[in-house]
Amino acid sequence: MDTQVLQEYLPLFGEAALLTVGLGAAGIAVSIVIGLVCSLVQYYKVPVARRLVQIYIELSRNTPLLIQLFFIYYGLPKLGIKTDPTACGIAGLAFLGGSYMAETFRSGLEAVDRVHSESAFSLGLNRFQTFAYVILPQAVSTSIPPFVANVIFLLKETSVFSAVSLMDLMFTAKDLIGLYYNTTESLFLLVVFYLIILLPVSLLGTLLEKKVGVPDVGD
């Protein structure tokens, strides 16, 4: 392994890492909003909208992100809807992530025993107060582990952004390998930068889970 090549490539991978994190963070933020709305629709069994959410979840979870990106970037312009690579990447990640977040939040909400809601109503709390002070805190605690897993999964999925000409980590690695054939150095930096991005998220998730986790009775 050539250390001089590593030093030369380091700034390029640094720029690509910033782009990867930026796009990933934006897509995940939008996916959280989508997931929260969809989970509430399912939890409260909103007519018609619930069925539409189920269709969206099945469509999103059962098609690869690469196909979704191709549809947004190459298919939508045929319908008169043009997107640049950045918007395409964020939209694709949000479309995929929204379905996973929706199922995570829904399972967290449904894990809260109905008797807690009934007890809150009997104490005089209204529907909003019951949700905000009784259901939501318990649902958040239950949802932390799968939520963190979803975040890591979505950050790793950014590796397909190179298919729509976004100069992320994967695009940079493939480009440098194709131009200069420094495969070992490029792949080494690719792995290192993904570890730099993902390991802190994993550790933070573990700490957060311990912080907000609700211990079982008797622990």
List keywords for this structure.
219 residues; single chain; 0% strand; MetI-like fold; mainly alpha
Q: Mind explaining what this structure looks like?
A:
- This protein has helices spanning 3-43, 49-61, 65-75, 85-110, 114-122, 127-157, 169-180, 183-212.
- It has a single domain (3-212), classed as MetI-like (MetI-like fold), CATH 1.10.3720.
- Helix content is 79%, strand content 0%.
- The longest helix has 41 residues, at 3-43.
- The protein is built from eight helices and no strands.
- It is mostly helical and 219 residues long.
- It is flat and about 70 Å long.
- It starts with a helix and ends in a 7-residue tail after the last helix.
Describe the SSE topology.
Layout: H1 3-43, H2 49-61, H3 65-75, H4 85-110, H5 114-122, H6 127-157, H7 169-180, H8 183-212
Helix pairs in contact: 1-4, 1-7, 1-8, 2-4, 3-4, 4-6, 5-6, 6-8, 7-8
CATH architecture, by name, is: Orthogonal Bundle
Classify the fold: give the CATH topology. Answer: MetI-like fold
Helix coverage percent of residues?
A: over 70%
Distance between the termini: 51 Å
Tell me the total number of β-strands.
0
Low-confidence stretches are 215-219
- Taken in chain order, the helices and strands follow as HHHHHHHH
- Beta-strand percentage range: under 5%
Identify the CATH homologous superfamily: MetI-like
CA gyration radius, whole angstroms: 21 Å
Major beta sheet summary: none
**Estimated structural class:** mainly alpha
Tally of helical segments: 8
Instruction: Tell me the domain tally.
Output: 1
